[in-house]
UniProtKB/TrEMBL annotation:
Protein known as: Antichymotrypsin-2
Family that this chain belongs to: Belongs to the serpin family.
Keywords: Protease inhibitor, Serine protease inhibitor
Coiled coil: none
Gene Ontology cellular component annotations, sorted alphabetically: extracellular space
Phylogenetic placement of the source organism: Eukaryota, Metazoa, Ecdysozoa, Arthropoda, Hexapoda
InterPro entries assigned: Serpin_dom, Serpin_fam, Serpin_sf, Serpin_sf_1, Serpin_sf_2
Domain Serpin per the UniProt entry, residue ranges: 26-248
């Protein structure tokens, strides 16, 4: 099973970028479900932002390959819409998104890239001494820890920084929300959780009786999405729980 965050919005409000992020999220989930046999909490939005920043500074075949991967048909879509999405999500007191570009002291970034990264992705910039990998990793990890309320403390190791490293793109998301419809602890019971059609285990299972929005896709890759809103009146971006056919 995987928990994955989609950008919740009405069909009338879906921008090309929102649709691309949701399509990318679906592809990431399906790949994870097919190749990863353990539970996972993932943030495709983080991946999409980091790749979007990479796309913004790329050209030629590299640019085309990234566009294909993140479901972007027009690079202008990325720039025009990302700022609005980040500003919209950042209005929630329960969700914090932060981007930062670290680059070596001998690297000179194109001024237009610096301006665009800040303007469209709200991405901070910072120089770091990549010749001293441990201190560079510590500096980056300290920033991530601060952005995630000390929930993530070790996003990069000194071994990740080599003599070839020139630029490091970091995305941090911190989310701590309260269900719009809280689950009562007293309703949690041990139930069967299906890992596959033939294999199940007993786990503590939360229970609630409420009306929720559910979407189902059919076909070979069919799955169900249940919208579980957070915050007062469900104002915070929704979490959608996905499950493949035959699995919990």
């Amino acid at each position: 099973m995987s928990l994955s965050f989609f950008l919740g919005t009405s069909k009338a409000q879906i921008s090309p970028l929102t649709g691309a992020i949701n399509d990318f999220t679906k592809e990431v989930y399906l790949d994870l479900a097919a190749n990863f046999q353990r539970n996972a909490i993932i943030s495709p939005l983080s991946l999409h932002m980091a790749l979007g920043l990479t796309l913004f500074g790329s050209k030629g075949e590299t640019s085309y390959a990234i566009m294909q991967g993140i479901q972007i048909k027009n690079p202008d879509t990325l720039l025009n819409d990302y700022k609005g999405i980040i500003e919209h999500l950042s209005k929630s007191p329960e969700l914090k998104i932060a981007n930062k570009i670290y680059f070596g002291q001998d690297v000179q970034l194109d001024p237009s890239y610096e301006t665009g990264a800040l303007q469209h992705f709200n991405s901070a910039l910072g120089k770091v001494d990549l010749n001293h990998s441990q201190s560079a990793a510590d500096q980056i990890n300290n920033w991530v820890a601060h952005q995630t309320n000390n929930k993530i403390n070790n996003v990069i190791g000194s071994f990740n920084i080599t003599s070839d490293t020139r630029l490091i793109l970091i995305n941090a998301i911190h989310f701590k929300g309260i269900w719009a419809n809280p689950f009562k602890r007293s309703n949690t019971k041990d139930k069967l959780f299906y890992l596959s059609e033939t294999h199940s285990i007993r786990v503590p299972m939360m229970y609630i009786k409420e009306e929720f929005i559910m979407n189902v896709e059919v076909g070979d890759e069919g799955f169900a999405m249940l919208e579980l809103p957070y915050g007062p009146l469900g104002q915070t971006p929704r979490c959608e729980v996905l499950g493949r056919n035959g699995n919990s």
